[in-house]
Amino acid sequence: MVEWFKSGSDIRVADTEINKALGGTSIGYTVAVSKEEDFIKNPETLRYIVSLQRHLETLPVVGKTFSVADYVKRINRVLHDDDPAFDVIPETKEAVGQYLFLFSMSAKLSDLNNVVDYPFSRANIWIQLKTWDARAMEDVIRAVDDYKKAHPIPLELKPAGIAYFNLVWNREVLWDMVQGFLMALIVVFVILIVNFRSFKWAVVSYVPLLFTILLIYGVVGFSGKRFDMPISVLSCLSLGMAVDFSIHFISRFKQRLGESSALGAQRSDADLITESLLWTAARPGKGIMRNAALFAASFAVMMFAPLTPYITVGAFIVSMMLLSALMTMIYLPALIVLLQGWLFRGGPK
After folding, report:
1. Between vectors from CA 122 to CA 117 and to CA 127, what angle results, nearest 5°?
2. What pTM was computed for the model?
3. Rg of the Cα atoms in the chain
4. How many domains, the chain?
């Protein structure tokens, strides 16, 4: 949620500077799990963890990694007069066990508990990421999987941490909203069929909605903005607002056409349709445009908010209202004229 603040805000500036100077502000974990107790104490296991850390640190999004292996290496070096040559994993499992026991006696219990469990069957690799983007954790998971395939070992490597939670949360929310959006498109179309009691009129009234959605989401995609949670939540909400103008326009048009047909028996069907469209565009159409403008103006103030989700909501609603109103006023009359032979078989009703 750091990116929900504007780029020049204190939080974004501080986060950027911390990421430049330190390992990273977003924390993810890779948990190495074994079915054997004391498996983590094996020098081969610790060397594998160190090698995995070096592999992960080659990723641009990773600033720093840390694990129980780093503790073991540091203790080994300190106990040998701080000789850099001993900044390595010791050769025996017994030495590793003695080092960890020594560390547990001299440090806070949480220091060791943060990187390994008591049966020494689980090791926690800390991964500091330089971005809160959920795709960064995706890169880490992919790198871990690739490394495990290239260097098999009887360890299960599982992702965890707030960065992984952020990734899972984004996937769940966004894909659920995508599925809901697709279902909402179907439900709206069914409601249009029921409302107009006609498949033909439902198709015509659906066109402005589709054009509005394609245009807005096309612009969002080409601009490079991600399909984040605010946009996904707004997707279903926008359908009801966008289709409302079409329902209003067609309902008033059909009402006017029915009245004109009853009074103008000597006029051609094409003249009746044209006259009804002109009246609908001039009278109810004016109300549709005013409604869209007022609605858009009320949400436009959100575009001056300090948080980007509010700006997204404001820009999205303003665009949706104005475009759906314009599409209704432009496309509906054109479609009705072009498809009048299909829509009015048997004459205007």
Report:
1. 100
2. 0.72
3. 32
4. 2
